[in-house]
Amino acid sequence: MSKTHLGHTARKRFGQNFLHDDYVIDKIVSAIQPDNGDNLVEIGPGLGALTDPVCEQVDRLTVIELDRDLAKRLRHHPFHADKLNIIEQDALTLDFSSLLAAMPDKEKKLRVFGNLPYNISTPLMFHLFDYAEHISDMHFMLQKEVVNRLAAGPGSKNYGRLSVMAQYYCRVIPVLTVPPGAFKPPPKVDSAVVRLVPHPTSPVNVHSVDTLERVCALAFNKRRKTIRNALKDCISEQDIANLEIDPGVRAEVLTLHDFASLANFVYEQGGDCL
C-alpha cells in the first residue's frame, strides 16, 4: 500500500500514521466532547482527521505540528484556517504553562488531545505530566500496549514505572481499541484511545517526584529482582520492612502508596538512588 495519503507522504522519522476511519474518528471526538469555551490543544494534527470534526464544533483550536508541510497545509485550510492557532514546534519542547497563559480564557485549563507518534508517546506523556496542574484532561491515541501499561494495576504483567507515574498524576480511563486498518499506512500494532484526567489533589503525598521516579525506575529495572535487591543502594532491607513492605516481593506487586512510602523514606535520608 502506498504511504501517500491526500497528497502527503507519511514520514517515518515523525512516526506518521494517518487516521482515516470515520467511525473511529467519530468515537474519539464524542469521547473528547469539545466545547466552544474550551482551551483545546491538538498535538500532531497531521491531515486533520480529528482537527476538522473538532473545528466544526468550536471557534478556536490550537494545534502543535512539527512537520512544516503539514503546518503549511493547515494555514491554507479551505474551511478552518481562521479558527486555527498553529504552533510549529516539537511538543516535547513546548512549555504548556506559557501556552495556557497566552489563551484568551486563562482561567480554564488546557484540554489536550492527539493521535501521538508512537515513537515519542511515552516521553511526551512524561513531559505533559510536568504540566498536569495546567491540564483538565487529555485524550490520546496510543499503541494499545502503552494504554494497557498506563492502566495496569499491581500484579499485572503490564504494570511498571509508566503505570505508577501515570496513576500518580492522573486517573487513567481506556476509551476504545483501534485496529491497524483505521490508519494509512497501517501500523503493525493495535492502537487504543485513553483518557487521562489529572488528579485535583495527588492520591499520595510525595516529597519529591524525582525521587519517586528514580525509585520506580530502579525497582522495575530488573523485574525479577526482589525489592531488597533492586533498591539495596537506596534503602536497607530492615528499613523496607519497617515501612510494612515485604522486602522479598517484586516491584510488580507494590502499590502507588508503597512506592510513595519508599520514595519518601529515601528522600528523608538524603539518598539519591543513583
Automatic annotation (TrEMBL):
Residues of the Ribosomal RNA adenine methylase transferase N-terminal domain: 24-200
Gene name for this UniProt entry: rsmA
PROSITE patterns for this protein: RRNA_A_DIMETH, SAM_RNA_A_N6_MT
UniProt name for this protein: Ribosomal RNA small subunit methyltransferase A
Class of enzymatic activity (EC top level): transferase
GO molecular function, one term: 16S rRNA (adenine(1518)-N(6)/adenine(1519)-N(6))-dimethyltransferase activity
Catalysed conversion reaction: adenosine(1518)/adenosine(1519) in 16S rRNA + 4 S-adenosyl-L-methionine = N(6)-dimethyladenosine(1518)/N(6)-dimethyladenosine(1519) in 16S rRNA + 4 S-adenosyl-L-homocysteine + 4 H(+)
Pfam families from the UniProt entry: RrnaAD
Family: Belongs to the class I-like SAM-binding methyltransferase superfamily. rRNA adenine N(6)-methyltransferase family. RsmA subfamily.
Chain positions recorded as S-adenosyl-L-methionine binding sites: 17, 19, 44, 65, 90, 115
Organism: Alteromonas halophila
Keyword DNA-binding: no
Location(s) in or outside the cell: Cytoplasm
Enzyme Commission (EC) number: 2.1.1.182
Example of a GO cellular component annotation carried by this entry: cytosol
InterPro entries linked: KsgA/Erm (IPR001737), rRNA_Ade_diMease-like_C (IPR023165), rRNA_Ade_Mease_Trfase_CS (IPR020596), rRNA_Ade_methylase_Trfase_N (IPR020598), rRNA_adenine_dimethylase (IPR011530), SAM-dependent_MTases_sf (IPR029063)
